[in-house]
Amino acid sequence: MVRHAVNPPADGWSLTLPSALWGDLHQHLFGRDDDEHGAVILADLATGPRGPRLLGRQLLLAEDGIDYIDGTTGYRALAPEFVRDAAVRARDEELVYLAVHNHFGTTSVAFSAVDLASHERGYPALRQITGRTVGALVLTPHAAAGDLWLPDGTREHLAELVIPDNNIIRLRPRPASPVPADPFRDRQVRLFGDQGQKTFDRLHVAVVGLGGVGSILVELLARLGTGNLLLIDDDIVDATNLPRLIAADHGDVGRPKTELAARNARRANPGITLTLLRERAESPVARTALADCDWIFLAADTHAARHWVNEIVHEHLIPATQIGVKIPADEHGDIGQIHAVSRFLVPGHGCMWCNGLIDPTELAIDMHPENERERARYVPGIIAPSVIGLNSLAASEAINHFMLAVTALHSDTLDHATVLHRPRTRDRDLQLPRQDPACAVCSRYSLARTLRANDQPNG
After folding, report:
1. What span, in angstroms and rounded, lies between the C-alpha atoms of 135 and 127?
2. pLDDT of 326 higher than 60
3. How far is CA 319 from CA 3, 252, 316, in A?
4. Average of per-residue pLDDT values in the chain
5. Which domains, and CATH codes, for the chain?
6. Whole-angstrom distance, CA of residue 15 vs CA of residue 158
7. Which one of 242, 246, 307, 323 counts the least CB within 10 Å of its CB?
8. Cα 207 to the chain's mean position, in Å?
């Protein structure tokens, strides 16, 4: 089996597919025989950190001999009726039409002359039918190339196909060119490789919440060589925060937490690019910025932050990690079981609503203005214990998962388990996420998977 090459994020147009959609497509194209097969992907269009992003929403599989037939000028082709129905569906649902077929090979792929000639004949008409971008995708199991025809008459290549899973796979027409070694980070390059280290430099990563856990995340991300950090927190440093904030001192009391985190990040990585938002995660400014990232770390414990990050993960197909530490203490000061959690949020898989991690009442309260939030609660909030060592346990678990995922070093690319530490009993458990098949947030593809082109869309 050929291991996927580690390709750093590329500039230009990209296509992101939920791992379940990719799994169905991969099985259809490569899982049955050594022949050529076809399909259509319908995708949304969004902005991204390095160029426009296509977000795969629906997969229309072409049945061999009916929808994918012998071609008149090439080996095989999508049947005209299948193309018509898929294009009309794209038009009606305001989605981008992408025809897909496979070639044979491993780490490189390109359209044939026959393929390109068929695009010249057919795509101007398809673009006129849909009124939107249309295009084609050709795949091997380890490479992808795309030809996009834009509504303004221009034409673009697809820079990469991204599959966000336990390993983040980035497929290009050919493997990325070699990059210079980074002698400053020689010891970690020996694990990640030059391309893996370049991946960190190219990534746009968000940290939501810059308190006890978030400040550690920022420090670790900057020292890994992450090139772009979005730091979101509307709070200021309190004297009681100092024992848990990295490199904080008494002169920082009253300063925004974003400034303290930025100072630490620049000290660790002078070349880093930072965006600071003194906003709550649910603010429109923060939500827009989060949708332009490659990965989100959620270290804020409000239900509003959980809800909106959860929405962004599944709407914009951006992986995230939710990190938290719970130290239960009763009115007598007795301590219960401590939990330190690193929860991987995979686009298209069990979300925080499915797993009971968002309370509708608390969410409604969190959305009140600040001066009304405590009054809206029947029982005022109790300040929970917090200790830097326990915060470090959860933060390190999250960072280790992230750094192995983006450099494709996990042994199991399908492992989505939450890691739960119970320090008092020295237990470490893996918990698989639950998914409600009818969830409107995370099951969007599951509700529409493997459609025929003329099927009616789900409501």
Report:
1. 9
2. yes
3. 21, 32, 9
4. 92
5. 13-171 (3.40.140.10), 183-431 (3.40.50.720)
6. 7
7. 242
8. 14
